[in-house]
Hints:
four-stranded antiparallel sheet, 1 helix, 150 residues, 45% strand
Amino acid sequence: MAARSRLILAALAVFAFLGSAAVAAKHRTASRTYSTGAFVVTCTSTGQVCSPPQRLRLTPPRRGTITTIRYTTSPQHCSAFVLQVVRGGKLLASSGRIEAGEQTAVLHPHIQVPKGASTIGFRAKGIVGGCNTGRVGSWGGKATVTVKLS
């Protein structure tokens, strides 16, 4: 009976170790995805940088890093622009030129985010041409952000 009890305890110890290793591995590679959903911003600004920014609330359970931003324009875009990522009025990242029409841009910015609630913003910086004659009137699309948790 004692040998059987030792065998059961040894098996439980192995399962406990394997389970904690799996949790630790999951902890190291976990990520969260956040999306704006489809949006349209009507600019209240008068220049090439549209205000207000489209906001996205992030709520990671622990600190992390934004590793990917995938932005898809609205098919109605009629001029080129640059997507800017901002937080607290500070420019954190920019895309390259995104052409008119339906396009997708992928950024890999490595922006640090704290545990809990925080907000980032997206804004368009217009490029003259197409329907842009010197001012961005509106823009839209969908942004999806991946946060790799620390």
